[in-house]
Amino acid sequence: MTVEAIALGKSYGATRAVDDLSFTLEPGVVTGFLGPNGAGKSTTMRLMLGLDRGDGSTRWDGLPLRGHDHVTRVVGAHLDAKFFHPTRTARNHLRLMATEARVPPSRVDEVLALVGLTDVARKKPKGFSLGMGQRLGLAGAILAEPRVLLLDEPANGLDPQSIQWLRDFLRHYARQGNVVFVSSHLLSEMALMAEHLVVIAKGRMVADETLESFVARSTRNDVLVRCVDPAALRAALAAEGVEAVTDGADGLAVSGIDTDRVGDLAFRAGIALHELTRRTASLEDAFLELTSGDQEFRTGGDA
Fold first, then answer.
1. Sheet strands (E) in 13-124
2. What phi, psi does 130 have (nearest 5°)?
3. Tally of CB atoms within 10 A around 98
């Protein structure tokens, strides 16, 4: 299944929360959804599911969501860690969902075990921690084994072991030929989980590309070279049209060139090197650089 978001838009008064967003989600990969606070990620997901009214449309294998006979078999969504009746047990919450999704009751206990909630299945979610609420939400999302998962900040409140489990689970789910679209503020974790990124800022598209190509765009990708005569090496690099900036007492940071070429230039110039290292930007480096100026610090509102 392929999911196509087409010219999505949403305004709140004079504020354009989502502005002409279009992208395609492909099966088999985990697509990360990134953006500063207030970028419009949650609103975008709600527009895709038809939970908010706005501009544009979303096609699920070429059809609107309501055009499918069994919506729960098409998409499983988890947008709110506390989206359950506080006095209904975890098992009964899922049993109600199973009835609507037309899946056997045995599937309820199967997903409870999968997300590690078997021991609290008879307890009421009102007493659950945030992490346990996230697990229950994920159980509901995967209950009908949908071909698409839409998850908004599913790692919030999870401990490190649970985050690792979530990462492995989502990658496995995608490898089964499914679409996985997940937002997160945990950029270091997203770097391990996602293969493709959709990045927005102030409701507009910043990037729609592989994680590798997104990180490669950062100016933080460079070569650190330490040597006996930085001034002489800088001159040798400049003669080849390569710029370098000082990095420490005896170092230079060189961009747009690989370590082999730096080493060759230093050798021809007769300059002894003490260190030659390729430095690669992290996802966090690239994200902060490419969305600088788009961060909105607020006490509430859309993520």
1. 15-25, 30-34, 55-60, 75-78
2. -60, -45
3. 21
